[in-house]
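Deliverable D5.2: sample structural annotation.
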Amino acid sequence: MSTVAVAFDRPPRASGFCRRCRTTHTLPTGNAFNEAQRLMGCLEETGSIALHPDQADDPDLSTAPLFGDSRGKMLGVLECLERNGKIVWLYAFSGQYSGRWQVPGWAPPLFDVEQFHRLNTPEEKQIKKLTARIEKESEPGIVTRLKTDRTRRCRRLMADIHGLYVLNNFHGQKASLDDAAGTTRAKPTGIGDCCAPKLLNHAASRRLRPVSLAEFYFGRANRSHTRLHKHFYPPCTDKCEPLLGYLLCGS
């Protein structure tokens, strides 16, 4: 669980230590703060995260669920420059949105979505079957065996999914999660799926230069109340910082 629980009127710089060059790289909030505020206004006005007019009526992109039982979500804005100096804005949401990894206009995940579904879908079905059997089983010995099998499958699936991630930095280099974050500690669920890694990876793959970054929470507060509506937060310490050094390298 992230240790960051403080909201900021203007978030601090994003930073991370790069294991390859042994340097801490940083990125300021800068103009991304104002663009994030503009984005908040658009979300409130339209009630949708749709960035293209032809998607405005897509119910899956409505912001209404963010204020319900599913609660809110972190969103991020990255200011970039093309080689000719033109400003380009990139946007990202953490994790999935209404079950979608990809929404036009928003930064994609750090893996191939088709590969993810080919890997995840069949194994997830088996895990759900085990869960159903556990709930119906009354024999303690059998329940223990089934739970052990489920845990083994979940851990193997997570490791296989993590193997799909490819991180691009601004030297034009590519790395796995292990290359970027190291193998000395267990990787938390959702590592690489937050806004900052998505934004920086997308910028690097498009050969853009990052200039400023801002992330904010939109929607109903999370259960621990460490994330509040329209408050700004720095990239999280457990899932983002281990990757940011590598992702920012060469910027």
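Annotation notes: Residues 1-56+63-109+166-251 form one domain. Strands lie at 14-18, 23-27, 73-81, 87-93, 167-168, 174-175, 209-218.
The annotation will be released with the project's public dataset once the embargo ends.
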